[in-house]
Design a protein that fits this description.
With about 260 residues, the chain is mainly alpha-helical. It has twelve helices and five strands.
């Protein structure tokens, strides 16, 4: 279903970014439980015309309320499904930003395959999500101006408009920390990737808000060993790989942080 959504955009003369946005939106239905529109998306994209790789950081931040942060320090971050641990939802803004910066289609075009899936009403929440997504498409359709301004109207209804009001009321009712000002402050960041050379390949990963740099460090360590000579999954191969990963993860635990708030070497 999600792959078919992307293919549908390609067959309608959309580009790879259009197809990716459609696929991501559909994944919120086909892969619910692993991903949802209330979640977050780290995305790398290669711009063939400009010849560079960029990162879209569709990762939400912690609540702005200092009382929430104080609660986390006192109680820890819940690990068993509590909405108290949820960051600001980043998926919708990521998809709209992807369409705006790199795509050619409208939000309505990108979300159409998802709405087809939702209209089958296979789960009890499908109808509600369909209503929300149609509100965003409606905001885009009713907006005036350029394609980019229309796309912005779609995301603004989610992060600033009546959808944000509904979300805030729900957050309050279930004891979550997020509020409308958290939604309003959210932005998808356009960043350069963390990149290394490894055995003739250039490897690109997202920054220290993911575990990407851990992979980069581990690969640089492994470059000093003849892994092929050791034999795939041999005791020596597994031992060297595990020790390299341990060193990479040790640096992650010691040095990594949000580069907007921490000095990451």
């Amino acid at each position: 279903g999600a792959v078919a959504a992307g293919m549908q955009l390609l067959e309608a003369e959309g580009n790879a970014a259009d197809a990716a946005a459609a696929t991501l939106l559909a994944l919120a239905v086909t892969d619910y439980g692993s991903f949802a529109v209330g979640g977050e998306i780290p995305l790398l994209i290669f711009d063939a015309k400009k010849g560079h790789v960029k990162v879209l950081s569709g990762v939400g931040r912690a609540p702005l309320d200092p009382k929430a942060i104080k609660w986390f320090y006192a109680n820890g971050i819940p690990a068993r499904g509590s909405m108290k641990s949820a960051p600001t939802p980043g998926a919708i803004d990521l998809c709209v930003t992807l369409l705006r910066l790199y795509g050619t289609k409208s939000f309505a075009d990108a979300v159409a395959p998802t709405l087809t899936l939702l209209d089958k009403h296979e789960r009890d929440w499908h109808a509600d999500l369909a209503v929300t997504l149609r509100k965003l498409a409606e905001a885009e359709e009713n907006a005036t101006g350029t394609r980019e301004e229309k796309l912005t109207a779609a995301r603004d209804r989610f992060y600033l408009g009546d959808v944000a009001d509904e979300l805030e009321a729900w957050y309050i009712s279930i004891g979550a920390f997020l509020r409308k000002r958290d939604l309003a402050a959210h932005r998808t960041l356009l960043e350069d990737p963390v990149s290394i050379e490894y055995r003739g390949y250039t490897v690109h990963k997202c920054n220290t808000w993911t575990q990407g740099p851990t992979l980069c460090q581990t690969l640089r360590l492994l470059e000093g060993f003849d892994l092929k000579k050791m034999g795939h999954l041999s005791p020596d191969y597994i031992h060297v790989l595990v020790e390299a990963l341990k060193l990479g993860f040790a640096d992650r635990d010691e040095y990594y942080g949000d580069p907007r708030f921490a000095d990451v070497p």
